Amino acid sequence: MKIAFRQIRKNRLYAVINISGLTLGIASCLLIGVYILHEFSYDRFHTNARRIVRVTMDYNAGDAATKVATTGTKVGPQFKRAFPEIEAYARTFKYTRVVTYEHNVFEESNFLYADAPFFSMFSFPLTSGDPITVLDAPDKIVITEPIAKKYFGNENAVGKIIKVGTKDFIVSGVAKSPPDNSQIQFDFVASFNALGASKTEKWTEANYITYLLLQPTTDILQLANKVSEYMKKVSKEELNLSGENYFTYHLEPLTSVHLRSALDGFEPNGSITYIYILSVVGILILLIAAVNYTNLATAQSASRTGEIGIRKVLGAIRFQVFRQFILESWITTMIALLISLIAAYFLLPFFNRLSGKEISAGALVQPQTLIMLLMIGGLVSIAAGAYPAVVLSNFRIINILRSGFSFTSKGNQLRKSLIVLQFVISVFLIISTIVVVQQLSYIRNKDLGYDKEHILVLPLDGTMDAGFQNLKQAMLNEPGVKNVTAAYEEPVDIGWGDGISKKSEDQQGVTVNAIPVDKDFIRTMGIKILAGSDYTDADVKAMDRSNGEQNLKFTFMLNETAVKALGWTPAEAIGKTIYKGREGIVKAVVKDFHFKSFHNPISPLVIFLDEKMAQEIFVKIDGKNIPATIQGLGKIWRDRVQHRPFEYHFLDEDYARLYKNEVRTAGIFTTFSSLAILLACLGLFALTAYSIVQRTKEIGIRKILGANIPSIISLLSRDFLLLVVIGIVIAAPIAWYATHKWLQDFSYRIKIEWWVFVVAGIGCLLIALVTISFQAIKAALANPVKSLRSE
Known about the structure:
13-stranded mixed beta sheet
């Protein structure tokens, strides 16, 4: 150990480079590892995690299969009656509610309704209340500790009465806040029986996420097969489906939903693909750091001829020499390991912003993290130190005494191969980063078919229905407001599933998404009408329910894709009768617009006039003086909507949330690509420096014989740059294949251009040239006489 530390002191530059490189590599790997452990831990903290499944719906209305994570209200109770394997069920429904206590009014977005078994199924600890009874009555509600503090201060919350909308609830329990690694997040959990929908059981009208608690010995696959057979009977006898139409349910293990399900629940899922990508990135970064160490260790070994010779003369066997160099590798790695743990602690807040997570510093000292860290340290010390140790311990003393220590051509080839590997990894990450950033830029800048900019989104509820038109007119009178409208949901992600047909008895219809809207929706959103005309006051009057439901006259707008699916052109569709539950006339055909993320192709869409079903208000402002406009809207809101606070957000923020995973990926790739290049250049810098030291005498002689500075720089740079070029050539096809596969997940995507590879290659080459030139120029400018004397 004394000799090991003596070597570190003697070769400070290379020791610093080795330790810095390993620190960066291990710290990066550690942060990525903690993130991956966090992702895999989702929902595993529940005691019954392995026994809980989520039910998803799969149906075909005649033209295409549709899969959603929601179900009707009948699934839970009927499945419990039909299958003895099911112990309990919990239907859940989440949406924003206005909560009032005394004179305090808050709009709460994290409000959940759930069946009575919710707290006995899931392990959300209660600090007050009995898990079995806290939701067993329609007027019971559970709140979290932060909410109890917010509403009641230091008073006991249990037994207090709060108003949700217009209904009174009694606080029956207080729960701890759900952990970050839970899909189900809530501030309030009210009894599901408080919802009107709980009074009837329906297979359809799928708005609820249903969880089932299975008996301990239940085989999920066998139960799923039973459900499939059961739903075939239901489809035929209850739903009267025929032909290729079907209606069924699937079971997803709770612990698989976050990373392996294609269907989002209460929050966007993670992605196992991105976990694999991150794992590869972490390993590649660590590999570059280990390669640096190996390269420098083998290069430095030539200066230890005397030490190895003396050890062998004094009787050291091969294993003892091997052990010495492995120990040195282990010491260097352990120093880097300790520093990397400290670095990870300080870098964690930055990494949390990058990954969008809230991983605590405590995660760095969890047993599994420390075990992972020690495993990384052990692997790196062996992987990086084994080759130099084997080579050095294998040399015969007679060869050292005759000709001194020199590496064979195999050793030089290995070092060159490792440099190539470093730049293969670096170029691969650079190209991948460019493609990911390009795709995100494409998503941000592509014409969506509607205008999402400068649109405020406000809530609309049943209490406001009667006065909505007056509120709308007051908002239109506000300076800076261009248009106001309302709809059932936001056009960035329309989830309402439905079906239309040409005839009322036609079961082979078209599966569509649908959105009920206010009269001015098309104009406010800037959607283009291809045929027909926009809604008018006459259309609104025709939908006046005061004349009786039977006298309503429905009119529909279809997008291009829906019209094509029905076999019409836009012009032919105008005036045609279609059926969507009820008969209606096609009033207009609108140009296709993106109402889902770019992962999904544009599907058939129906827009229909029904202001009573609207739940969101959209206010289009001119963007000239946004603060003043918002202030004016706030005053109007507080004057006219006194039962809920003025809380808004912008439509483009919700659009951006659709691509949260992709934005994270781009940020992570950009960061770690930069780290990869930095590490590769660090190694190249050290190897260049060492090579120049070894060639000091040669450079001095060349200068004396008339060599100029450019020729010496060229001589020293040529071999290294050739290795970088080889790395670029190898990395390009690998990067193309990987990014091409990633882009296939998008229905709308960029084309990978040739110039991406040229830019990445030239950029990498220039960075390498600058790195090499720094040392090469220093050597070329050195006094040759001094070089020859001191060499």
